[in-house]
Amino acid sequence: MKFAHFFRLTVAIAAGGAGSTSFAAESWPSLPPTEIVTRVLLASPSVQAAAGQVRVEEANRSRLEAGQYEWNVRLGAQQRRSNPATGPDERFNEWNAAIERPLRLPGKAGLDSELGAAGVALAETGHGDALHEASRDLLKSWFVWLKESASAAQWSEQLALLEKQTKAVQRRQQLGDAARLESIQAEAALAQAEAQLAQARVRQQTAGEDLRRRYPGLPLVAPGAIAEPTPVDGNEADWINAVLEHSHELELARGNTKRAHIFAGRSSQERLPDPTVGLQVSRERAGEDKIFGAYISIPLPGGARRASSDAALAMADVAGRREAAATQKITAESAILYQSAHAAYATWQASRSAAERLTRAADMTARAYQLGEGSLNELLAARRLANEARLSAGQTQMEALELRYRLLLDAHRLWAID
Question: Is position 416 within any domain?
């Protein structure tokens, strides 16, 4: 996909939100339509769960911004008994009331707001990562089904050839031009092909059922012909940089590092406790004394606050090292993916060439057998080798196509809906 088109596509998605599907769909050979893929992925339970996590973090941000600073009301009642040395004993009903509230010290509110925003950003990145992982899984499952479908089609073609061959041998035997052994050999080869075709169809149905169950609404219509792979453009460094630039895994690691540093700063601020201020009123000696006052309460910090701050700093260091590890891991995986996609194209070309030559050799062996030259055993061996080569060529063709699409997907040039 050209960069300009990719940029317009990304802008359209950003403008429409994560659930928008109004952008122009790109057509990718041998893949289902992009608009259907988008709808199926957005309906995935894992993606919807990630979208729900965004709402969780938005509520958590509101909680952090509000803080655990609430008004507290205290009410009390008591009875005073006075026993003077002279005079009768006296009893007085008294009561007191107070209202108080902790005060968040300057700087803490801003850090709490940053913590909440960092949590929302991480959840949004997690939503994109869930979409990307679902895209990866769908692409892999789709090609498993395509490979099994192609294998079943190839065995069906081989079965048709062997059925034709078996009928020809049986006819020659009836005319006395072929031995009974040749008829048995032809029937055995036909039976083997039937067994292979049955197994291939079972694998095809299993792969198709997996797709239907995990991605409802995805049409399982095999393309009439698998598209020929194209070589990967650009060099390894460019592709690695493109993958790193759009990697949700790396973005999550960076987001965790950022949040850990904010949390460390907030924990450091917490070493200075928040004061509690209040107003109180009391009525004593049955109303003879009325008292109004104000007070402030300040916890005395201990070792627990210092230890919490030290732990938060250590967590920030751990997060930074995990970010470095994620960068290293993604760089290595991207390099391997690029090399695999590049090598797969050359492998497919070699496999296709081998399949074409072995197919021609099998056709020539068949003509020679028809002319009475060579044996049926040689013909069956040639057919078997040609069939194996065509199966291998089909698999390497789709392997090259899948690896190229996977590289494009990781670089956000395929199904860029996250």
Answer: no
